[in-house]
């Protein structure tokens, strides 16, 4: 769908320079999705992997974030192998709702109610990022925290349109449950992609 150089605004790698590759197509259908234009599978241009790598090489970053849409609707073996061959770190942002492909240095799994994550992807997650849209999402998120490995980082992130109401609740929840950390959509606060 698009590719661009910016900073990672969310989660464990928040604040780091990263090249984003956003793949078209999503079958999850979150009501609050902020990239609904990504949903159609075939409405986006195709880029040769070599041309994407050429663009990444023009930057100073070693971190490539593959996102969507739901990137795991695509088989990502060839893309990630090519990125690794060129010495890049491969990160993915996924709902975990489709089978895992690709070779990843960091898997950020953000579970969605509209199509649940697969247990096999939860077990591979380095980072679990739960979007908090209402009060019941804390208990909803805990069921997935119980399914990831002990080393998986746990983040609570307010849904953007609900941030004013949910952020204070998240702060209180984290004070009670310090295994969780706060993730904010930093890129939206500083107005970068
Ligand atoms: S999984 Fe991501 S891209 Fe797909 S609908 Fe949900 S927020 Fe949007």
TrEMBL record:
Pathway(s) annotated for this protein in UniProt: Purine metabolism; 7-cyano-7-deazaguanine biosynthesis
Please tell me whether the keyword 4Fe-4S is annotated for this protein. Answer: yes
Cofactor(s) recorded in Swiss-Prot or TrEMBL = Mg(2+); [4Fe-4S] cluster; S-adenosyl-L-methionine
Q: Which UniProt keywords apply?
A: 4Fe-4S, Iron, Iron-sulfur, Lyase, Magnesium, Metal-binding, Queuosine biosynthesis, S-adenosyl-L-methionine
Give binding positions for S-adenosyl-L-methionine: 32-34, 69, 110-112
Gene Ontology terms, MF aspect: 4 iron, 4 sulfur cluster binding; carbon-nitrogen lyase activity; magnesium ion binding; S-adenosyl-L-methionine binding
Q: Which Pfam families match?
A: Radical_SAM (PF04055)
Q: Name one GO biological process term.
A: tRNA queuosine(34) biosynthetic process
Tell me where on the tree of life, at the top rank, the source sits. Answer: Bacteria
Annotated [4Fe-4S] cluster binding sites: 26, 30, 33
Name of the top EC class for this enzyme: lyase
Cofactor detail note: Binds 1 [4Fe-4S] cluster. The cluster is coordinated with 3 cysteines and an exchangeable S-adenosyl-L-methionine. Binds 1 S-adenosyl-L-methionine per subunit.
Q: Which InterPro entries match?
A: 7-CO-7-deazaguanine_synth-like (IPR024924), Aldolase_TIM (IPR013785), rSAM (IPR007197), rSAM_sf (IPR058240)
Q: Which reaction does it catalyse?
A: 6-carboxy-5,6,7,8-tetrahydropterin + H(+) = 7-carboxy-7-carbaguanine + NH4(+)
PANTHER family according to UniProt: 7-CARBOXY-7-DEAZAGUANINE SYNTHASE
What is this protein for, i.e. what is its function?
Answer: Catalyzes the complex heterocyclic radical-mediated conversion of 6-carboxy-5,6,7,8-tetrahydropterin (CPH4) to 7-carboxy-7-deazaguanine (CDG), a step common to the biosynthetic pathways of all 7-deazapurine-containing compounds.
Q: State the family named in the UniProt similarity comment for this chain.
A: Belongs to the radical SAM superfamily. 7-carboxy-7-deazaguanine synthase family.
What is this protein's record name?
A: 7-carboxy-7-deazaguanine synthase
The major lineage groups are: Bacteria, Pseudomonadati, Bacteroidota, Chitinophagia, Chitinophagales
Which gene does this sequence derive from?
queE
């Amino acid at each position: 769908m698009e590719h661009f150089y910016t900073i990672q605004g969310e989660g464990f790698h928040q604040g780091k320079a990263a090249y984003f590759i956003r793949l078209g197509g999503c079958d999850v259908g979150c009501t609050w999705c902020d990239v609904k234009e990504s949903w159609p599978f075939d409405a986006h241009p195709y880029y040769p992997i070599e041309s994407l790598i050429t663009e990444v090489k023009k930057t100073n970053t070693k971190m490539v974030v593959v996102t969507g849409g739901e990137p795991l609707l695509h088989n990502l073996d060839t893309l990630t192998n090519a990125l690794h061959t060129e010495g890049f770190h491969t990160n993915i942002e996924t709902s975990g709702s489709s089978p895992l492909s690709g070779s990843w240095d960091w898997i950020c799994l953000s579970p969605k109610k509209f199509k649940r994550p697969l247990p096999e992807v939860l077990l591979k997650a380095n980072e679990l990022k739960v979007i908090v849209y209402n009060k019941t999402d804390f208990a909803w998120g805990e069921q997935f925290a119980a399914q990831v490995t002990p080393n998986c980082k746990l983040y609570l992130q307010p849904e953007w349109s609900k941030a004013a109401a949910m952020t204070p609740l998240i702060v209180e929840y984290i004070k009670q449950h310090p295994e969780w950390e706060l993730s904010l959509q930093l890129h939206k606060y500083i107005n970068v992609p």
